[in-house]
Design brief:
CATH superfamily of the largest domain: Metalloenzyme, LuxS/M16 peptidase-like
Radius of gyration: 25 Å
Helix content: 40-55%
Number of domains: 2
CATH class of the largest domain: Alpha Beta
Low-confidence stretches: 1-53, 488-493
Strand content: 15-25%
Strand order of the largest sheet: 1-2-3-7-4-6-5
Largest sheet: 7 strands, mixed
Shape: globular
CATH architecture of the largest domain: 2-Layer Sandwich
Mean pLDDT: 84
Structural class: alpha+beta
Length: about 500
């Protein structure tokens, strides 16, 4: 059975329905009623075309077993993208299983009851497509882009491994080696990443985000077939997943196919536990880190931002774009005031909140207090809003929308856009009104966001110092700003 959730409803009609005073009870309508309406042309593609243009259509449904399904049909796209997201990430692991979500990113390509191992890789390669998977704090994604027709095979494999995955000792040992190698290369052998993971551990402490999605070497090494199967049976089921299909597919045929493949899966799984909001978490005011890094010092101010579901999410995106551009943070700290060798803004989004960091790198000759003083002075300068006027805002909107417009013609981009709206913004229809939301943002909206989340907020301070510094850098590093002003550094650096 399939339950209809505003399926085939044009976006403008759906938006108007939000304001009606009576309950439409769309959720309880059956799939057969949707087909009945379609058969009589009451929900025609012509009205949908006014929203999506051309022959594009969008449907969002929920199967009775809880699987969320989104279908974006656009016959202009030569490729179909199938994306299955399990809302299980590293933040849902237990204390002794750090890394199981990442491990399962690899184990899910093992054999199933009906398919050999790496079946989806072989299918996609045969038809000239691409496939991969990623693990984050909040979710694990499996995606494949392939010509229409063979995409049916991808759906069949995805459905089978949701319930019939086979985990063997051989598979586990193979994937352990892969995951441990990624952990060593990305976390242990890279000093910058190593510092980042240490900052996570100490900054988040007992928060589920304290351990990176790579996991820990100890927990990955100790994983057993039994613990992996328990994790799989506990979480990997239809109620914790969102399936999206985008590209040149037929909506009705795809709905019927998904119902036949996934509708009979009755696997009961636990919902992922709630992750504490970053806005309510008690972070330390300052962290000092030390490692074997090049002889430089780094300082950063971290500010908490709301989740992607917040009303001012798009205004924040434009704000970050503007302060990262001309006349922004980097320009002021390096070119105008010559207080750093390198400066950049960093944005870390998660489902529980978002972190905006202003970081700088300098030679290690100044006091820690001075480094943070320069950062604060630059942020105060930005509060004069010399980087913000109607022309710069319009340019930022155009840059933002450029990727939006380009993404309309790529099935993988549309799949990601739909998933972000559904999984991160709690409203799948936000995937289709971004242009309107961006166009409505004003200068006052940008100023309000900067003042609320930067000017009037208390940041976390992170200071990084090298374990050892050559004597000549310590002794003469303070001369660098003067040498830079008269142009001597170009002959030295």
């Amino acid at each position: 059975m399939v339950r209809l959730y505003m399926t085939h409803i044009p976006w403008k009609l759906r938006k108007a329905a939000k304001n009606w005073d009576f309950d439409l009870n769309w959720y309880d309508l059956r799939f057969g009623i949707a087909l009945f309406l379609l058969g009589f042309g009451l929900l025609s593609s012509a009205s949908e075309a006014s929203v999506f243009s051309g022959s594009a259509r969008f449907s969002s449904i929920q199967l009775v077993n809880g699987l969320q399904v989104s279908i974006f049909e656009d016959q202009r796209m030569p490729i179909v993208t199938v994306q299955l997201v399990y809302y299980i990430g590293s933040s849902h692991e237990d204390e002794d299983s750090r890394g199981l979500a990442h491990l399962f990113e690899h184990l899910m390509f093992s054999a199933t009851k009906n398919y050999p191992e790496r079946a989806v890789f072989k299918l996609v390669e045969l038809h000239g497509g691409s496939t991969n998977a990623t693990t984050s704090f909040d979710e694990t994604r499996y995606f494949a882009s392939i010509p229409p027709g063979p995409h049916v095979g991808v759906l069949k494999i995805y459905a089978d491994r949701m319930v019939n995955l086979i985990v063997t000792e051989r598979d586990l040992e193979r994937d352990k080696k892969i995951v441990l190698e990624e952990l060593r290369v990305n976390a242990q052998n890279d000093p910058i990443n190593r510092l980042g993971f240490e900052a996570l551990r100490r900054g988040f402490e007992n928060h589920p985000y304290a351990i990176s999605p790579l996991g820990t070497e100890e927990d990955v090494s100790n994983a057993t077939v039994a613990s992996c199967i328990e994790f799989y049976q506990r979480y990997y089921g239809p109620r914790n997943a969102h399936l999206s299909i985008t590209g040149s597919v037929g909506t009705e045929e795809t709905l019927e196919l998904i119902e036949s493949l996934f509708g009979s899966i009755e696997k009961l799984v636990e919902p992922p536990r709630a992750v504490p909001s970053l806005a309510e978490w008690d972070f330390p005011q300052e962290l000092t880190l030390r490692d074997e890094i090049p002889p430089v010092e780094a300082s950063a101010l971290l500010f908490e931002l709301p989740t992607a579901a917040a009303d001012d999410h798009d205004a924040i995106n434009l704000m970050i774009s503007l302060i990262s551009g001309i006349d922004g943070f980097e320009d002021d700290l390096i070119r105008k005031r010559r207080r750093a060798l390198y400066a950049q803004t960093f944005d870390l989004p998660t489902k529980a909140g978002r972190v905006l960091a202003f970081g700088s790198i300098s030679l290690p000759y100044r006091r820690k207090a001075t480094a943070f003083s320069y950062l604060n002075q630059t942020l105060d300068t930005l509060a004069r809003y010399e980087w913000l006027d109607e022309q710069s805002l319009l340019a930022a909107k155009r840059r933002y929308l450029q990727s939006e417009y380009q993404g309309r013609y790529r099935s993988s981009s549309m799949a990601n856009r739909i998933e972000f709206a559904h999984g991160w913004q709690n409203d799948v229809w936000k995937a289709f009104d971004r242009e309107d939301r961006i166009a409505a943002i004003t200068i006052d909206d940008i100023k309000r966001a900067y003042e609320q989340y930067v000017v009037n907020a208390d940041p976390i301070r992170i200071y990084v110092e090298p374990a050892s510094v050559p004597w000549y850098v310590s002794a003469f590093g303070w001369l660098y700003p003067f040498a830079d002003r008269i142009g001597l550094t170009r002959f030295v650096l």
